[in-house]
Amino acid sequence: MTRRQLEVLLSFAGPIAVLALWELLSRTALIDPRFWPPPSSLFDTLWEQAKSGALWTNVRISMTRVFVGFLIAAVPGVMLGLAMGLYWPLRVFLMPVATALYAIPKLAVLPLTIIVFGVTEQAKLAIVVVSIFFLIVLNTMAGVQAIDPVYLDVARNMGANRWRMFTSVALPGALPAIMTGFRLSLGFALLVIVGAEFLDGNKREPNGIGWYIIRSWQLFQIDDLFVGLLVVGLLAWILNAVLDLVERQVLPWRPNAGQ
Predict the structure, then answer these.
(1) Which CATH class is domain 53-250?
(2) Which portions of the chain are predicted below pLDDT 70?
């Protein structure tokens, strides 16, 4: 068995072991099956929701918000992070602001976005952008600072202008850190959007996987609630797997790319 095959096997073995333990504890009533139904009993609910299309609609709504918010934050976040990594005056000027805003709990900003945008689609996108922007900026900046100064000196001595410094030295050198920032940001964006969608619990139409979870709680539909939670976990795993594939293509020289 190759190492890659072993990695794939172990990546599936962990979740299966957790589900098996959960099944055992619920079946033996060591945990209350009314509130912790065994995973095997959730498949019928999952199939019904998937067959009706309601689950896919909620997943599509949430993932659209995640990807749009991510794209809005990623491009300027990478550019600003590269600039802060290359130019120390800009870094010194912006670091206190970036550090302070990054430390604020992101769901605590949600009331402010509601005041500004109302309970609208723009508010949900705004909370995603605010939540991940400085995460991307700080990871990118750290990646640039980790570049061996020799490469920067060689580029300057060969007459590289600022744009060439960005594209030929800073961006390739910081790519591992940028990919790490993207990985963290997508997971964090999913977490934040699920929390933001809780506000839509009073709506009757599907409005995201967070809406699905809070709606199930309001109606005390425990099986549906757990299906929603499992879907969120599955989405996080899929996002991580997709970024693994992207990282293998973008950073093929890294020995641990995609692990």
Answers:
(1) mainly alpha
(2) 201, 253-259
